[in-house]
Sequence to fold (143 residues):
Amino acid sequence: MKANLFILVLWSLSLTFILFNATQTGSQSSGFSLEVSNILSNGLLRLGIRVDIEIFHALIRMGGHIFQYLIFGYLSIWVISIYHLKWYNIFRTVYVMILDEAIQLFTPGRAGELFDIMLDSIGVILAVIFFFVTKQIFKKHGG
Fold:
């Protein structure tokens, strides 16, 4: 029972994180992702890998969409599983994607974009794949 509550809390935090990010102004959002890009590119530079920071920044921004929805989607599947909901409830994550982009329409310096929903969808698809692959691995090894 505590594990179920823990998953529900993580799911809620993930949703809150997505909505928080949607409310960040364009300069705040870009500034944060640029800072992450700089940290990661400096790490790569230490490994002898040089990257174009503008292209890398764009990739980090796209990866951020995929990553946050991979986490949200994975936790959504756990919630669906724990509460014995029908499998198609995973498509309710689309509501969150639309809400995320709709909020950005009213946030200074931001724009709701269909391309972002596509990136978010990739994250959820990867979450579904990851969930079922890990489920099969645990089942195979008696977990």
